[in-house]
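Fold it.
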Amino acid sequence: MAKKKTPQETPMMKQYYSFKEKYPGAILLFRVGDFYETFGEDAIKASKILGITLTKRHNGAASEMELAGFPHHSLEAYLPKLVRAGQRVAICDQVEDPRFAKKLVKRDVTELVTPGVSYHDNVLDTKHNNYLAALHQQKEQWGIALLDISTGEFLLAQGSEEYVDKLLQSFQPAELLFNKKHKQAYYDRFGDQYHVFFLDDWFFQFDFATDALLQHFKTQSLKGFGIADQPEGIVAAGAVMHYLSESRHTNLQHISSLARLEESNYVWLDKFTIRSLELLYPQHENGVALIDVLDQTVTPMGARLLRKWVALPLKEVKRIEERQQIVKILLEDPEVLEKTVDSLKPMGDLERLISKVASLRIKPRELQQIKRALGHIATLKQWLESSPHELLHKFGNQLNNCQFLYDKIDKTLLDEPKNVLNEGQLIKAGVDAELDELQDIVRNSKDYLEQVRLHAIEETGISSLKIDYNKVYGYYLEVTHTHRSKVPKSWIRKQTLTNAERYITEELKVYEDKILNAEEKIFVIEQRCYEALVREAVDFTQSIQQNARVLATLDCLSNFAHLAQKNRYTCPTLSDDNALQIVGGRHPVIEQQLPPATPYIPNDTYLDSESQQILVITGPNMAGKSALLRQVALITLMAQMGCFVPAEKAHIGIVDKVFTRVGASDNLSKGESTFMVEMTETASIMNNLSDRSLLLMDEIGRGTSTYDGISIAWAILEYLHQHPNLRPRTLFATHYHELNELSKSLERIKNYHVTVKEAGNKIVFMRKLAEGGSEHSFGIHVAQMAGMPQQIVRRAEEIMQHLEQNRSREVTQANLQELPQQVQMHIFEPSPEVEALRKYLKKIDVNSLAPIEALLKLNELKNMLK
């Protein structure tokens, strides 16, 4: 049987498949002339994601292959769509000029762009880091590494699975690397919430990882990074570095350090707490997260740093107070605050720009932005160093205006250069003598040619002589037949016309070569000069990264001052005691969403470990219990970020862990009920409590029967109160009024309720916390306010009255049957009206109804029930 011919038999397709084999799983953008083409499965994927036409082509072997492509200049528009869809994209460019290619044009993959590895502005979000993460597990220990290649930030941590899961929730990596050998285990633990790429087992070997890190950082050991006792973290970090090498990312001077994320330095926030408090992302579409309210930074670096501060609140009083002191200084002098903010606004994304320098990807206009930023830094540095405030003076000392680089860019690069390297108009005069000469030739070519013409007229006496150009002969002298006899013998005739003849001269040809080759030479020389400038800028990578860190910190702190000024925030007192007192506290997000004329109702809260450890809070739904719980947690966390807080006064005894069990988070897709999820999360909290924990629990036990729920909630409160070693500060919101009894026997449990005002048979929510338990849930009133049909509301009131009268007796169906039946709904009992309705409904063909017909039918049904 003859061997079937395949598309690989064409030279270009052989070349294509050679690259495709090197980058399995990546969409290969294959440069062909002025287009990037995709083939086969890649073309099918690309056409769907990008919305471009899918066609077919013949490959010279009696076979067809899918094809989809787009113009090369549209790469910046199409690449982000592919990456955001989770695709890895290998960009295969022509690495030689097709004009000089003897056979097949040489091509090579110049970059592998993945969701977690990109420098492209259109792929990245300026306010978010773009982390590539790697995970490694060894028994019960997990290692995690997080790298943002666009900024050079490289982090490492090691701990339990819960700790790693918490970090993933906080940092939200764009891409995650994991051992292919444990692929199923990964999906069992983390599902499909991240873009994951599985690497071979050898990527995750300790010796291999250590060598990769030592080679990159050019050190003899890793002790200087403080990570020697983090073997699993080292393995994860090594996998990241090798992945970059495999991805054709070799210029990585901006990744100059590896920082350890020490669990003990920051408040523990598990993934449920981060989600339920909506610190970084809202739970619902169109919702507002805390970061959306807090982030009014003016630089991209500041916005990214603020997200880390929100995810990692501090536990050390001294570090928190250092932040507070800067905020106070800025608040006390509005002029200083305004000047600081105005100085920061024009800085641009200095952190990502210098990363582009280090990776040799910086564009000319971006390099000019670095120069402008350095100019602003020099002014800011001088101003800060002249400040009478020692802390501001310290900021000034930490800035480096990089004067040499500023001067070098200023001297070399045009103020408004083109943004590409092969079209000229980049380099100033005086940088390169040959370039100046060529620029002069191009700039003065008309004048020079006019001088040649005048010289020829003087030599020949032919006043009508002119110089012109065409593609066949280049520059030529044109003489009419009348003056043909005056032409010197040294001129070379190239063309005879009806009325004239065209000549060239040696002088003209020499100058023609100069003019025609000048632009091409200019492009080459300018590119050479520009690349030399970039290589000099690389030497300033660490200095400018330091500047970016200082500017980001100053931006975050001036942002805190601006928020305090704008939103009436006050400076909290931080201490190492166990008291938590908030006077006139407000929810930082909700108060910003209220209509302008609607004031937020503030509340006081006090907790400690000696007298008032647990607050049992009762009250109806919609009264504000959940908002109050979240409000206390958010004020506490804001305080430990160093931010001022929405309260008249606040004293925060340092919290080391915040746990929440607020709201249902069903996992029905995995067969877990609301109650099972609630109990799993609650069990995790009970097993991880500390003496300094802040615990928020809302409606524990509501997912099961009343008696089961009360029993579980009761037992939890007893456990929290009676624990021999721990006294976590707790807010416990509940509908179970029976829990108010606990305060009679457990001295550190206090009853509070959210007040309501009854007006006739209606209620008004006062949203104010008061001492004492509530005896009613007002659930029926809430149902009525929500628009429940009146028949249901009346029946519910009958049942409730009966239950309250018979609270001492067992509640059975027989009890309920004692109630008068006349208020029972009778729509499905036999009657002429019901029979007519049933027949009418049976005749309707729902599947064939148009929308307008359905509305008409609905109106007829409504009239039948009158």
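Residues 132-265 form a domain with the Nucleotidyltransferase; domain 5 fold (CATH 3.30.420.110).
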